[in-house]
Amino acid sequence: MDQTCLIKKFILSCSFILSLLPAWTQRDSSFFRRVQDDSLSSAMNMDAVYNRPFLALGKSPVAVGGYLEGNYQYAVEDGVSEGHQLEARRLTLFISSSVGRRMKFLSEIEFEEGGREINIEFAALDVEFHPLLNLRSGIVMNPIGAFNQNHDGPKWEFVDRPYSATQMLPATWSNAGFGLFGKYYQKQWMFAYECYLTGGFDQSIIENEENKTFLPAAKQNPHRFEEISSGRPLLNGKIATRHKKIGEIALSYMRGIYNTFEADGLVVDQARRLDVLAIDYQRQFPKWHTQITAEWAWIQVDIPDTYTQQFGGKQQGGYLDIVQPIYRKAIGSWSNPSINLACRLEYVDWNNETFRETGGKIGDELWSIMPGISFRPNPQSVFRLNYRYRQQKDLLGNPPALMAAVLFGFSCYF
Known about the structure:
The chain is mostly beta strands and 414 residues long. Helix content is 6%, strand content 51%.
């Protein structure tokens, strides 16, 4: 498919989405706001980029914010341990500004591992023409699943991010690009869409140190904000709906060419496609304040015939989080604290295929369970204690490697 055809499909898709939604409606135009205790009841995942606490600088249109995250870990895998570990995991800074009428700018810069890695995760200008028609351009956070957009540490009761979001999908996956997004309100219903053309993946997803199909490897390409390896943009879209009594459910999709198949106008390889489909769901039950977050994704990659079967053409995985507050009364000078029980169930299959010679199932999969308890002195800060038990099988499906770990950490907006 040539680039002109892809762009035409992108424009037609946006037009189709807009034609399904009624016209003018009002929405909250406030730009700087604090994260609320029950943020899920008033916002969708696509709002996560702005649903953060900011500190305005006097009468300046600029506001700043961010969060800090650190943790302790002791893990044992098959009887072997690296001992006690302390990690200054990440420091993230937000800078936002109201550039002009109906124009907003926001950037998110993350410092990881004590500053050894510095990443611009988001830096985009939003122009609002209509609640259903807004333009976003710059470094865009690709909307695939729920976690990629709503990944801030203080919002989660778990020290580690989900395996499916970090080791199968590339967590905090962002690229240079542009697109449209919008929302529509109808009584207790909210409908939203996003549709972008951005930079995409490259050959590293099948040529990497993991020696398997590994989408997160593309994040290591420092040139992905400057050029597209294949010369074809990545098409990424999401539609979501939310109801106060039902929760939020969303479907997202990415599609693009990942390999360099042309050089100096000559075709040197077959254009190889990558497709990602994800579904996510969130709900908070008002009576018990129980919160459920779930996400599942399927990946399909066109692998060259010359590659061995350890490179999976199909992958799938996801997670389920259950969080139950057990104490929500004042403690000393803390007027709005909470103590929560939590549990995460995870599964990832990096090679959801069978051996051609035997028909047997290819391994390379894991499952994990992680119960925990957390204390929130306020909605913007969390201290969390987790225990992880994990089983991981190799390519041949040998008896799994067993891992157990104790994790303690904190995360706090500032």
